[in-house]
Write a structure and sequence with these properties.
Layout: H1 2-15, H2 21-27, E1 29-31, H3 33-37, E2 50-57, E3 75-83, E4 90-94, E5 100-103, E6 112-116, H4 119-137, E7 143-148, H5 149-159, E8 162-166, E9 170-172, E10 177-179, E11 182-186, H6 188-196, H7 206-224, H8 233-244, E12 247-250, H9 256-266, E13 274-278, E14 281-284, E15 287-293, H10 295-307
Parallel strand pairs: 1-12, 2-7, 4-13
Antiparallel strand pairs: 2-3, 3-4, 5-6, 7-12, 8-11, 9-10, 14-15
C-alpha cells in the first residue's frame, strides 16, 4: 500500500490540473489528528526528516476531530515511511498486524497491555493508530495516509495493471488467485489478492505476506515512471480522481495542493533508494500465532529514524521477519 501512496502523490505532482483541485479536494477524506492527540506526543525530530504512517484498510475513516471506533474495519497493512532530510532516500518499516503491543487509552477506550497492533484502528480509528505507533516507536508521525482496499484495486486498474515475475506458484483458493511461475500483468483484483494473501505462502504467516508486499511495492515503483501518463490527460485525470477518492489523510495533507507539495519532495527518490524492512520481532512464547517486538533491536531501528540515519543491518539480524537462509523472494527483482 505504501507504493500506491507514493504513486498517488507523484501523479498529483505531474497533473498540472490546478483548476480541478477543488474537485479533488472534495474527494479526500481527512482526520484532524493533531487536535485529537494534543501535546502528549513524542517531540518532532529537528533534523528536517519526515515520518508518515501509511495504512491499508477496508474502510475510509474520516472521523473529524474525535476518536472514532471502526468495529469490523481492519487495518491489514501498516508502514512507517521515513523520508530523509535531503529527500533523496526513504526507509519503509512495516509493523506486523499480529504484533502484541501496549495500546494506550483512546478516548473512552482504556489502554491494554497486550493488544494486537491492528486493534488500535478498530477501536479508535486513525488517531488511535497514530497514538499506538508513537508509543511503540517514540517517533512522532508528521502525517497520516490511509488507502482503502477498494481504491487500491481501482487505482491499479486505472494504471493498466502491474507486471511482476513470480519465482514460485501462488494459489489462494479464497481469493481465486492462481499464478504460475513466470511473468504476469496483474489487474486490481489480482493485485489486492496478492498483497493480502497469507494462505498462498509456504509459512502462511503475516511476516511472509509483508515480504511479498515489499517486493510488490518495488515492482510497482519501478514501473510508474514509464507508463506515459503525462501525454494522456484523460488517463491522468482518471488516475488522480481515483487516487484522491481512495485516501484518508491527516488535516495537514487534506487537500490536493498539500499532496502536491509533498509529492514534489518525493520526485527525487529513486526506487533503488528505498530501504524496506520489517520491525524486528520474535514469536510470542505464550502464543505462537502472535509476535512481539525484539525490544533492543527495535529500539535501534527507531533511534536511526529519529536521527535520520540508515538503519544498521544488525538491527534486523535474527528477527522472525527476516527470510530464512536460501529463501528466494516470491516476486523476482528486475
Amino acid at each position: 500500500m505504501g507504493g500506491l501512496c507514493l504513486v498517488l502523490l507523484l501523479l498529483l505532482a505531474g497533473a498540472g490540473l490546478t483548476a480541478l483541485y477543488i474537485k479533488f479536494d472534495r474527494n479526500i477524506s481527512q482526520v484532524d489528528i493533531d487536535s485529537v492527540l494534543g501535546h502528549d506526543r513524542p517531540a518532532d525530530s529537528p533534523n528536517g526528516s519526515m515520518d508518515i504512517l501509511v495504512l491499508g484498510s477496508d474502510s475510509r475513516a474520516g472521523t473529524d476531530d474525535e476518536y472514532g471506533g471502526h468495529s469490523g474495519a481492519r487495518a491489514d497493512t501498516a508502514m512507517i515511511v521515513h523520508l530523509n532530510e535531503a529527500r533523496d532516500a526513504a526507509t519503509v518499516v512495516s509493523i506486523p498486524r499480529d504484533t502484541l503491543v501496549e495500546r494506550p487509552s483512546c478516548g473512552r477506550e482504556p489502554g491494554k497491555k497486550r493488544a494486537m497492533f491492528n486493534e488500535a484502528y478498530s477501536v479508535g480509528g486513525p488517531a488511535c493508530a497514530v497514538k499506538t505507533v508513537e508509543k511503540l516507536t517514540g517517533v512522532r508521525m508528521d502525517h497520516y495516509l490511509e488507502v482503502d482496499f477498494e481504491g487500491f484495486s481501482g487505482l491499479v486498474d486505472t494504471l493498466g495493471g502491474v507486471e511482476i515475475t513470480t519465482t514460485q506458484a501462488i494459489r489462494d483458493e479464497d481469493s481465486r488467485l492462481d499464478l504460475s511461475v513466470g511473468t504476469h500483468t496483474l489487474d486490481g483484483e489480482q493485485s489486492l489478492a496478492l498483497v493480502r494473501t497469507r494462505k498462498a505462502l509456504a509459512d502462511g504467516s503475516d511476516l511472509g505476506r509483508i515480504r511479498l508486499q515489499h517486493s510488490f511495492v518495488r515492482a510497482l515503483a519501478r514501473q510508474v515512471g514509464g507508463i506515459g501518463l503525462f501525454t494522456d490527460p484523460r488517463r491522468l485525470y482518471d488516475i488522480a480522481d481515483t487516487a484522491t477518492r481512495s485516501v484518508t489523510t491527516d488535516s495537514g495533507l487534506g487537500s490536493a495542493s498539500d499532496l502536491y507539495r509533498l509529492a514534489r519532495t518525493l520526485k527525487g527518490i529513486d526506487p533503488d533508494a528505498m530501504t524496506m524492512l520489517t520491525m524486528p520481532v520474535a514469536f510470542d512464547p505464550k502464543d505462537p500465532n502472535r509476535v512481539v517486538p525484539i525490544e533492543r533491536q527495535a529500539t535501534r531501528v527507531w533511534t536511526a529514524l529519529r536521527a535520520d540515519r540508515p538503519v544498521p543491518a544488525s538491527a534486523t539480524e535474527g528477527s522472525a521477519a527476516e527470510p530464512r537462509a536460501n529463501e528466494r523472494e516470491v516476486i523476482a527483482r528486475e
